[in-house]
Design a protein that fits this description.
alpha+beta, Pnp Oxidase, Chain A, Four Helix Bundle (Hemerythrin (Met), subunit A), 2 domains, 7-stranded antiparallel β-sheet, oxidoreductase activity, Cation-binding protein, F420H2_quin_Rdtase, coenzyme F420 binding, Split_barrel_FMN-bd
């Protein structure tokens, strides 16, 4: 069975360090892997990109078709994406630009690649401009070598703390901007921005995956081989349930960002900071000494 055009581009891209021929020859091309909004399956799409102020910008042009491309719907549901750029591969949070920022970025893209202006002229929909923001797991001290399960857990914890701090800062900035434009005694206008939504969804998705994996695999193995940790593991599971309840409140508020109560959202974020910070501190104190003896990835030589 012949492979699709996109698949042939993907294979050529990976085989030649990001260089391809045909209609993409000489152009700036990346591979974007998203998670299906309904299927949950991974989907990789070759896309042109434009650089701007350290960001990679991709456009949901769909060649000027009347509907947004599938990859755009996917990243709205699952903002954490995988980017392949040349020989480099990294995770990113995909954030659609809004309002005047979207217009400025699209104008920049159209100057760099005039074809996108033509696609916009073909359709009545506003072509999405998506910024791919690197989602680094390492801390400011640089990449940490991952040789044990303790290293991997710390990497994920570092990312979760950083994302939560980012969402908190964005929310505080949003509230400050709203306060500056309302009259005395007026309540904050409802609504949250896509920047807050996408980073919070990426945080919540990673948090769920991390805690689910611990509950299903890590904690049972530790309880079997280290019975003295069972009381601590029971407490950590209970903390997982507490954090999950706060996470669900955040997700409910994100269901309609145009009508979300920003003050309530900020309060739930504060709860998440308190609960998750305490949980991560407990987990690191109790489990890292044991996990340091477990090679990572599994099966690696100690």
């Amino acid at each position: 069975m012949p492979i699709s055009f996109n698949q042939s581009v993907i294979e050529e891209f990976r085989a030649h360090g990001g260089k391809v021929g045909g209609p993409f020859e000489g152009g700036d091309l990346l591979l974007l892997t998203t998670t299906g909004a309904k299927s949950g399956a991974s989907h990789t799409t070759p896309l042109g990109y434009v650089r701007h102020d350290g960001l990679l910008l991709v456009i949901g042009s769909n060649l000027g078709a009347p509907r947004h491309p599938a990859w755009y719907h996917n990243l709205l549901a699952h903002p954490l994406v995988r980017v392949e750029l040349g020989t480099e591969e990294f995770e990113a949070v995909a954030v659609p630009a809004e309002g005047t920022r979207r217009d400025r970025l699209f104008a920049h893209v159209a100057r760099a690649e005039p074809g996108y202006a033509g696609y916009q002229e073909r359709t009545s929909r506003l072509l999405p401009v998506v910024a791919l923001e690197r989602a680094e797991h390492a801390d400011a001290g640089g990449p940490r070598e991952i040789v044990s399960l303790a290293d991997k857990v710390l990497e994920v914890h570092t990312w979760l703390r950083a994302q939560l701090k980012h969402v908190l800062a964005e929310t505080d900035a949003h509230l400050a901007a709203v306060a500056a434009h309302r009259g005395p005694g007026e309540p904050p206008a409802p609504g949250l921005g896509m920047q807050i939504r996408q980073h919070c969804l990426a945080f919540c998705g990673t948090l769920t995956f991390h805690h689910t994996g611990e509950d299903a695999h890590v904690f049972p193995a530790l309880a079997e081989h280290h019975p003295r940790l069972r009381d601590a593991l029971d407490r950590l599971r209970e903390e997982h349930r507490t954090v999950a309840r706060v996470k669900d409140e955040l997700l409910a508020l994100l269901g309609d960002i145009g009508a979300a109560d920003p003050v309530r959202f900020r309060a739930e974020l504060g709860r998440m900071v308190d609960e998750l910070t305490a949980h991560l501190d407990h987990e690191e104190a109790w489990l890292l000494p044991v996990l340091a003896a477990v090679p990572f990835p599994p099966g690696a030589a100690a």
